[in-house]
Specification:
hypothetical protein tt1805; two-stranded antiparallel ribbon; flat; six-stranded mixed β-sheet; alpha+beta
Length: 174
């Protein structure tokens, strides 16, 4: 289990070297491929490459009315008043709920006896040549590799959300 410092270290040392050129799909499931390169801390010039898939489910619209129901669970009078304020400003508040699935069976890992920089550089050149719009290349830390992947997923949501909201608005869903 990671300590809070290890968790923070993993977040701070996650780098996206090649981001997907396509955002999360607004009306369907997206399947992203990722390559995460980490460096073994106890060995010189030993890198680990993890390949896998991230399944991003279709974003769901959370309306102010639904959000107020979520907020009210376990909240008192102040929560009730806040929920009423949100409901009164309906069009101003719209949220998307994203669902992700990363299955361990999709992950392939292998070691390369080169520095992280060399391995990541070669992979980046190879992936750029393939030009796959749903592929990402990351570097991070070995012990906290799952945190690195989660950070990437959150960043992917952040970059996709404005476009997804726009798509929903265009179709009159918001």
């Amino acid at each position: 289990m990671l300590s809070p410092d290890d968790f923070t270290y993993a977040l701070e040392n996650t780098r996206v070297l090649l981001a997907p050129s396509q955002r999360l799909d607004s009306f369907g499931t997206s399947l992203f491929n990722y390559f995460l390169v980490t460096e073994e801390m106890d060995a010189v010039n030993l890198s680990r490459v993890r390949e896998g898939h991230i399944h991003a489910e279709r974003p769901q619209i959370i309306t102010p009315q639904n959000m107020s129901k979520l907020l009210l669970e376990g909240f008192g009078d102040q929560g009730q008043r806040f929920a009423e304020q949100i409901s009164a400003q309906g069009a101003r508040f719209a949220f998307l709920k994203y669902g992700f699935r990363v299955s361990k069976s999709d992950i392939r890992s292998y070691d390369v006896h080169e520095s992280l920089e060399n391995v990541a550089g070669k992979l980046k050149a190879e992936l750029q040549q393939k030009s796959e719009p749903l592929t990402a290349l990351l570097t991070g830390v070995d012990d906290g590799w799952e945190v690195c992947l989660l950070k990437f997923m959150i960043d992917l949501i952040s970059s996709s959300a404005p476009g997804n909201l726009g798509d929903f608005r265009e179709r009159g869903m918001l």
